[in-house]
Every structure is written in C-alpha cells, then in structure tokens.
Structure to design on (435 residues):
C-alpha cells in the first residue's frame, strides 16, 4: 500500500510517499514554511494559515500526480498551537504557534495566564499550549467573532482537504492543547468551564486513527501530533528504545504501557492506548544555531565575509577536550516548559579555557545534558533504561559531534533514524493503524 504523509512543521512543510508494508520511503519533498507574520507584539508568534494550506496542497498535488495509486493521506504537524474556525469549518484567525508567548504575559494583576492556571488548578499548562492561548484571548476579548471551534494546524489541514465543518483530533493533539486528563483520555471540562472558557469550542477527540473524509477520492486520516508521528516513524512500537529528536527544539521520548508524569515530563497519548513519555527541550538545535550566529557576528566584526560557520564549529568541537576545558554551559536560552524564566549560563570560565573550541564543545554538552536530565527523571519513575537511542531531526543528523556526545552521556547505543523526514513518514505509516 502506498500512502502520503504531510508534516506542517514550524520552519518547513514536508511530504513523503511510503510503501507502508515494507516501510520503504519512495519520495520526499520539503519546502520552507515561510509563513510567519510580523506583529507589534514581540512575544506573539503567529503564522499565515492560508499560505500554509496552499503550500501543503501544492506539495500534495505534486505527489498525487506522480503516484496515482495512493491509498491514504496521513497528517501531522507542530503541536500545541491553535487556530479558530467558524461554523462552516473555515479558519478565521492566524495560527498561534507553540512558540507564542501570550500565556506568559503578566497582564492580570501582575500574573500571567500560565501562572494563574498553575496556582488555581495545580496543573501544568505552559504558554503556547492552545487552551492557555485561548484563555488569554478570551480574557482579552481577542477571540475572533464567529469562532465555533479551535484546533491545531494539522487538524485544520484535514478539515480543509475534506470539507469537514468541525475538527476531529487525535488524543495526542488534544492533550497538546492543555487541560487534558491523559489518564482518562479526556479534556478536563470542569476546570475549563470554571476558568471561563466555552466548552463548545473544544474539538471532538478520538483515541484511534480514523478517516476524516476524502480528498480526490483518497481517505484522509486524523492527524497525529508531530511528536507521536516522529516517534512512529523512528521507533514504531519498540520498547526500551528512546527517541532523541533534535530540531529547533527537541524531545526525548520512550514508549510506555503505563501512565507516568513528573515535573517537565508528559505522558502523551500514542497508539493502541499506549503512551510516549516525553520531555521537551525548548532550545536544542536552536542553541547551536545561536552560537553559529555569534561566530558569524564575530566574522563580520573582523571585516570578514559573513557565511555559515557550522563546518568550522564541528572542527573546533573535535579539537576541544572531552570536558570542554572545564567550561560548563547551560543551554536553556528560552527557559523550560516548567520554568520559562530560566536562562542559559556559562560557569567555570578561566584564563586558560576561554577558547572558541570550548564554547562549541560546551554548548553541545549542554544540549546533551538537558536531554539526559529528562532521561533521569523518567528512569527514576519508571525504571525504563536507555538500551538504545534513536536520533532524529536535522540537529542530530547534521551534527556528528552531538551524536557522539549523546552516546557517551547516555552510555547507550545510538542510531540515526532510517528516514530523514521522521514525522511525515510516521504520518504515512499511521495508515497501518486505522480503526
């Protein structure tokens, strides 16, 4: 069976064609997302939905022309963010992405929505989580007139392709919005209503992979969250294999039969009523990119031509000692999900170790350490050991020093995923689990 998987990511849109029985990638296409909209609020991170739909449709139509025997279309995309739809199923807002800072604005007697939610309800709900964004909009009178529902961008793509008027979302995407009881696979409706939000705005949720409708006569499937889709594409249903995904941000995930949550650790609904236990790193590949921009700035300051510095950085990292000369760098430049006010720091500086190679090695080790801290938290609560790491995402694929560092830090075998576009491949493979 040939299937297509589409992934609407934060920076790119990817689509693949897969032979699902053989788990063989037949074709892959990627285009820049390029849809961010500038606003006068520096904390707002929004994207143009109509442009995203056009780009996704263009890439889909190209693949359907090349492969006329496609039997299903699977979907995935960036989690947590929301858009609003009207009674006809049309989007009437931008996409408020997972990076949106609305929930952290101290506009309610000096406190933010995220702080108020944690204080009143004792639940973890970070800025960028869809229901937190919705609560901010509701309190500020910013919900678009005519809104009847909200959903993620990949859920909306399913609506848009099939003509659905109401979103149907997988539990993984539902949980990513916040205010979701992952033990019982349902929204915490009592809390949502008490917080002053309209329950009718919530999308319908399913624990199974279901058909949303058809596009050009081809079944379109309910969207998976990009974390779940990436895990499906990289690991599948294997136990004791941990996926370390390094993109702009990052996640460390492992399959579990039982529910476990801790500070910064989520039990995310997966397939077959199982969970993937996941911790998020907000600055993974981004931390390395920040350092690359620093080196570019140094080059310009010295009158040299600005250009990509990644090859130079990899060479420097290999020249550095294993301990980066004693330099310790915390790479939490955008904080954490639990504490957004935390920032990065450098310690252990001395006259001898303040060298460019140690800066590069220190950042790489800082990224690996943040993933390892997540592993320690999950291992402490579940006993699931890291027998093997499956590395995915361009941040891992393009950085051999980071892969080596992760392998040493975890003392585990490490492999790259078979597929470069893991999330899109996972979306395509979701056709194997249709109920």
């Amino acid at each position: 069976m040939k299937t297509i998987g589409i992934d609407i990511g934060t920076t790119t849109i990817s689509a693949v064609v897969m032979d699902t029985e053989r788990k063989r990638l037949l074709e892959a296409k990627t285009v820049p997302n390029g849809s961010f909209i500038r606003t006068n609020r520096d904390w707002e991170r929004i994207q143009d939905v109509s442009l995203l739909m056009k780009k996704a449709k263009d890439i889909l139509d190209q693949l359907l022309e090349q492969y006329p025997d496609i039997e299903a279309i699977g979907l995935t995309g960036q989690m947590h963010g929301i858009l609003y739809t009207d009674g006809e199923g049309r989007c009437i807002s931008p996409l408020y992405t997972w990076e949106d800072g609305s929930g952290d604005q101290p506009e309610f007697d000096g406190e933010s929505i995220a702080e108020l939610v944690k204080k009143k309800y004792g639940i973890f709900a970070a800025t960028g989580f869809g229901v937190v964004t919705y609560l901010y909009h509701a309190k500020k009178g910013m919900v678009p007139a005519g809104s009847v529902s909200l959903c993620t961008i990949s859920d909306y793509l399913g609506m848009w392709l099939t003509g659905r008027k109401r979103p149907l979302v997988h539990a993984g995407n539902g949980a990513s919005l916040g205010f979701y009881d992952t033990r019982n696979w349902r929204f915490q409706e009592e809390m949502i209503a008490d917080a002053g939000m309209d329950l009718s705005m919530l999308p319908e949720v399913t624990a199974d992979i279901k058909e949303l409708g058809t596009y050009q006569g081809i079944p379109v499937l309910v969207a998976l969250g990009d974390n779940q889709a990436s895990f499906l594409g990289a690991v599948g249903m294997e136990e004791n294999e941990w996926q370390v995904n390094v993109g702009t941000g990052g996640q460390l995930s492992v399959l579990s039969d039982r529910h476990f949550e801790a500070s910064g650790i989520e039990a995310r609904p997966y397939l077959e009523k199982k969970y993937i236990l996941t911790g998020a790193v907000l600055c993974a590949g981004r931390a390395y990119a920040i350092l690359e921009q620093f080196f570019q700035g140094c080059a310009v300051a010295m009158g040299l031509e600005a250009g990509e510095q990644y090859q130079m950085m990899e060479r420097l990292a290999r020249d550095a000692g294993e301990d980066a000369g004693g330099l310790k760098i915390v790479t939490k430049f955008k904080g954490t999900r639990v504490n957004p006010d935390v920032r990065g720091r450098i310690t252990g500086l001395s006259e001898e170790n303040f060298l460019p190679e140690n800066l590069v090695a220190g950042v790489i080790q800082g990224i690996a350490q943040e993933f390892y801290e997540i592993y320690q938290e999950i291992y402490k609560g579940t006993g699931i050991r890291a027998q093997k790491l499956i590395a995915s995402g361009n941040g891992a694929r393009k950085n051999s020093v980071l892969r080596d560092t992760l392998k040493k830090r975890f003392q585990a075998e490490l492999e790259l995923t078979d597929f470069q576009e893991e999330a899109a491949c996972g979306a395509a493979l979701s056709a194997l689990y249709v109920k």
